[in-house]
Amino acid sequence: xxxxxxxxxxxxxxxxxxxxxxxxxxxxxxxxxxxxxxxxxxxxxxxxxxxxxxxxxxxxxxxxxxxxxxxxxxxxxxxxxxxxxxxxxxxxxxxxxxxxxxxxxxxxxxxxxxxxxxxxxxxxxxxxxxxxxxxxxxxxxxxxxxxxxxxxxxxxxxxxxxxxxxxxxxxxxxxxxxxxxxxxxxxxxxxxxxxxxxxxxxxxxxxxxxxxxxx
DNA sequence: ACGGAGATCTTCT
DNA sequence: GAAGATCTCCGTT
Length: 215
Hints:
- This protein has 4 helices and 10 strands; from the N terminus they run βααβββββααββββ.
- By secondary structure, it is of the alpha+beta class.
- Strands 1, 2, 3, 4, 5, 6, 7, 8, 9 and 10 form a 10-stranded antiparallel β-sheet that branches.
- A hairpin with an 8-residue loop joins strand 5 and strand 6.
- The longest helix has 8 residues, at about 20-30.
- It is globular and about 40 Å long.
- The two termini are about 15 Å apart.
- The model is unreliable at about 210-215 (pLDDT under 50).
- The structure holds a DNA duplex (13 and 13 nucleotides).
C-alpha cells in the first residue's frame, strides 16, 4: 500500500496505550516510531506488531513478575526493551492498565526520516533488510538497554511514537505470532495476535513464511 | 530463494 | 543447564 507521509503528527498519549493489547497493536500500524540520535530525527512507519497479554502462555509475564519483565506491570506508554537470544534487543510498548501485564512488540518499520543514520547502523545491508525484523529495527534506531522503561509519550528520552493517518481494515492482515517456543500451548501458539500492513515490503523477513490472511 | 546451523548470554528451572 | 518474542552466514537449488 502507499502511505501518505505529509500528515501532521501528534505524539500518542497514555490513554492510547491504556487499552487492550490487541487494539493497541492494531492501531499502532501506520504510526511513526521516532528516535532522536545526535539531534537528528530518525523514524519509521510501524508496519508489523504483536500483542502479549495477561494470562497469555507466550508472554514473558506468564510465570509471574521478575526483574526482566517488571516493566510489563507498569504504566502504559513506557517501553519494555529486552535482550533475546543473548544478542538482540527487542522493543515493546507497555500497554493496558498498571498491574495488568501486557505489551506490544514492534516487529518492523518502514524507514522514513534519517535514512543516512539508518544506513550507517545497518552498514553493508540492502535497504530492504534495514528494518524488516524486530532486532533489525532496534539496530537501525540505536535502541538497547538504555531505552528500557523510557516514556514513549514524551520526547524527553529521545524515543516516542506519533499518530498518523489511520489504516483501514482492508489494509490490515493478522496471523499467529512468530518465534514462540515449541512448548507454548494452544490456543496461544496459533492465536492471531500479529498484525501487519498488507503487501508492505518491510514486514519481518522471518514472518514471510507464515500465512497471510486479511482481517 | 530457501534451509540449516552457529552465534552469544541473560534469565529462569 | 536449557531455552529463548532473532539474525547472519553459508550451503544448495
